[in-house]
Amino acid sequence: xxxxxxxxxxxxxxxxxxxxxxxxxxxxxxxxxxxxxxxxxxxxxxxxxxxxxxxxxxxxxxxxxxxxxxxxxxxxxxxxxxxxxxxxxxxxxxxxxxxxxxxxxxxxxxxxxxxxxxxxxxxxxxxxxxxxxxxxxxxxxxxxxxxxxxxxxxxxxxxxxxxxxxxxxxxxxxxxxxxxxxxxxxxxxxxxxxxxxxxxxxxxxxxxxxxxxxxxxxxxxxxxxxxxxxxxxxxxxxxxxxxxxxxxxxxxxxxxxxxxxxxxxxxxxxxxxxxxxxxxxxxxxxxxxxxxxxxxxxxxxxxxxxxxxxxxxxxxxxxxxxxxxxxxxxxxxxxxxxxxxxxxx
Length: 345
What we know:
Blueprint: E1 3-4, H1 10-19, H2 25-35, H3 49-58, E2 59-60, E3 64-71, E4 78-84, E5 89-97, E6 100-105, E7 108-109, E8 127-128, H4 131-145, E9 149-154, H5 164-175, E10 187-191, H6 195-204, E11 209-213, H7 219-225, H8 234-248, E12 252-258, H9 266-276, E13 281-287, H10 301-313, E14 318-320, H11 334-343
Parallel strand pairs: 1-2, 6-9, 9-10, 10-11, 11-12, 12-13, 13-14
Antiparallel strand pairs: 3-4, 4-5, 5-6, 7-8
Helix pairs in contact: 1-2, 4-5, 6-8, 9-10
């Protein structure tokens, strides 16, 4: 199979032109087209036809195909279903905020973490994505909305730190001024709590926002929701979070999905506040997304507000996530789950 053109960075292109006995400056030309999100080799007008034909023999730009798009009638949110070259399916979401366009991209086709509340669980794991496939999601969405993407969150399908090397490579490339030129502070990585990888990520020294899917105030409830909690207990997870804030000076965002009668009572808020007190953090409360076949129900709005009030009165900075694209199931995993079900014989 041909290599996906977006998978090569500037160093790779330097090696390529050297192997092909081409002038060194050709590497910069090709890389510049890739960095701009070129959709066709014919767009590379400053390259001779012979070189474009050589690139067509060696590489493909068909590594990411738009299979479906849904646009919200409530706001500017759009959900994209992309098919990879090998048939795997992923999802991405485009959102509009007062500061501009933001996208949430996938790092894997499927997920191995098995969280019991997640739509990705049960729809199968395909493989981890390359950094080029992650970049391609951003480029494809930017082309679609004819606007610059200023913020990227790796919080779609998959566990980013389970695809560690490719995610770190993506972050560095997304930050490159010659490419997407997105500030590290406008890049976010989410994790369900792979503690050793969190420690390694902290030591990378990348000033991105780290979001940790917490979803519970203690080990008992967290193990019910998230199998990874059986491997990495609550205390070790919070120790890794504190280490991150101390070494980077960046606050941690804790994602906390509220499930009716499971983790949304005032005693849960009190216990959570006690755990997080004194940490440089922010709690992002999420009225949980429901999906067909799911075991949990969304917390009632009064319970969400009581939970928020109890946290803030306890000195914990917290907000309720603004719901975007509610009419198109903008939370990742749900459309892929449906499409995978349709493909099952």
